[in-house]
Amino acid sequence: MRGFELKIAWRHLIKSHGQTELTVGAVAVGVLLVVFLSSLINGLQIGLVEDVVGSIPHISVQAASPNAKPLWRITDKPSMSTLEKMTTRSKRIGEWERMQAAIAAIPGVRVVAPAVEGDGLVTRGAMTVGARVIGVIPDEQIRVISLKNRIVEGDFTKVDAQNIAIGTKMADDLGVKVGNRLRVTSNLGVTESFRVAAIFDMGIEQINETAVYMGLEAAQAMFKLGKDVTNIHIRSAEMYDANAIANHIRGITTLTVTSWMESNVSFLDTMRMQNTAAAIIQGMTLMASAFGVASVMIVFVVQKSKDIGILKSMGATCKQIRRVFILEGLGVGLGGALLGSGIGSGLCFLVTSLKIPGQMFGGKQATIIPMQFDLNYVLLASVVALAMGLVASIIPAHRAAKLDPVEAIRQG
Amino acid sequence: MTPIVEAVELSKSYGDEIKTWALRGVDFRIDQGEFIAIVGASGSGKSTLLNLVGALDRPSAGAIYIDGTETSTLDDSGLARLRGDTIGFVFQFHYLLAEFNVLENAMMPLWIRRRVSKDDRKWVKELLDRVGLGGKFKSKPAELSGGQQQRVAIVRALANRPKLILADEPTGNLDSQNGALVFELLTELNRELGIAFMLVTHDDRLACKAQRIVAMEDGNIAADYKVDQVEAASHSALAG
């Protein structure tokens, strides 16, 4: 290609009496919407996922708790008896250190920590509330769930045989602060007195209301487990690998393995639907922009038909004329991409800087609109904008290329 | 000497169902350096002949050889290249591109066909100087008078060093004084550069200044004669 096409296209674009501004604006709006909406959906989802997944292990291994089954399915002998569900006391994992080591060896696993979970009550004076007692090794638990930024008061690492951590809701309900004492009773009737060492906000009401973290040994004693535990908590390096890792673990144990993705199927479905809806909106906006660009360009070709005719009389070929208008489309796409992603990015940064004081979302200071800007959206939107410019220019360019020079000049 | 244009039994019709013949089997040739005026009433086929000679259009029947190439052997791109290399056009209106200045407009045919060399630039500037636009290189077409605009269009037609300039009513949009000046310029350029000119005009006074006059009537050439013969004839008529 010679400089001719570029020269004509460029002059047309910079001296178009508003058409360029309009079409670049149309593309920019499309790009802006893609960047802004993607960042918004992404920010929302990262926050939601962080709230959902941040406070629970990616994968949890529990002592098997089979449902009642006919005995004949187990023994292969005719029988009318059934094997009943095991009682709470028998749900335990013995020799968990071996299991912990085996799971830790699976690729993609970052942290493996033992835990004891059971139900109980928390009492302060005359007030009693239900509780989910979780016995953990605090230094390891901090690595299993995202406790960073979630501790409102106190120090979670102090959690041990005498110190517990409770949620903000429970603290409010019972009117306790860090340093106050509480009585915790397990469903096996063991009662101990603890000092509140930390108050957390996991972002989920139920956890803030009922969860009580204590030292692993303290919980083992309360639930009469000896050296055994009830759960093994796992954090994977990539949270969306949880299902694959869970399946891997199922291959080496008969224990019940649950990933966060399996226990939050509807949540993930909702996210997927959100993504689809966003993609449809973005796609339609881009299409509307492309139609706008195409129609303005068709008018432009009509306006310039005299010039096209004269260029053809001077020896310009159909291909050259077509390239002129394709280049103009690409130019409009490029201009729209730059303008749209510039404004879109600016808006994202502006919106993320508007914080709501005292409110948390996704383990971070909440903003008026949760946004997560990603350079990839800008790149994607820009590629799409260029493609739009190209597609929008095909019909106008074809029309221009096919203009009969005799007709074009005569009608001029 | 090979002619620049040779038409054999050249015909052109418009319309599919009902055919209107704009040219009916015309034989015609243009030799190097000729200055031809085509005259005739509206609808006599002048413009059709010009479009066919200029390779802007294809004949319905017959053949036309432009610089030795038969046009029916060429595709659209081939025709475009033939135009770019061989022919320059001047129309009734200047058709300068509003986005480009005088020098850029005059260089346009060069840009279309090839990389522009220093020699090309020099040539175009010399031509602009020659037509009295030496100080207007950077002016936009809208800033020029009608006569100046048409002179830029003439330089543009010459930029590619064509063998033939086709001019369709080049003075038709100018007042008589400017029209005469532009016509004068065309005849001078014809003499100086040795380029053939074929000019369609309504103005008989201008046509009489051509070397050769071709009169069209109903799609046929009604008369084709050298002007000195006409002058001789008119002188003899006056004498008689």
Commentary on this structure:
The complex is a heterodimer of chains A (412) and B (240). Chain A has 412 residues and is an alpha+beta fold. Chain A has two domains: 3-52 and 267-411, no CATH class; 94-254, no CATH class. Chain A is 53% helix and 21% strand. With 240 residues, chain B is of the alpha/beta class. Chain B has a six-stranded mixed β-sheet with strand order 6-7-8-3-9-10, with helices on both faces. Chain B has a four-stranded antiparallel β-sheet with strand order 2-1-4-5, covered by helices on one side. In chain B, helix 3 (102-113) packs across helix 4 and helix 5 (146-158) packs parallel to helix 6. Chain B is globular, with a radius of gyration of 18 Å. Chain B starts with a strand and ends with a helix. The mean pLDDT of chain B is 89. The A-B interface holds A 2-4, 7-8, 11-12, 14-15, 306-307, 309-320, 405-406, 409, 412 and B 51, 54, 56-57, 76-77, 80-81, 83-85, 89, 91, 93, 95, 97-100, 108-109, 111-115, 156, 160.
Largest interface: A-B, 27 and 28 residues
Whole-number count of domains of chain A: 2
DSSP helix fraction of chain A: 40-55%
Oligomer: heterodimer
User: How many individual β-strands of chain A?
Assistant: 14
Strand content of chain B: 25-35%
Q: Average pLDDT value of chain A?
A: 86
CATH class of chain B: Alpha Beta
Report how far the terminal alpha carbons of chain A are from each other: 28 Å
Mean pLDDT of chain B: 89
CATH architecture of chain B: 3-Layer(aba) Sandwich
The strand order across the widest sheet of chain B is: 6-7-8-3-9-10
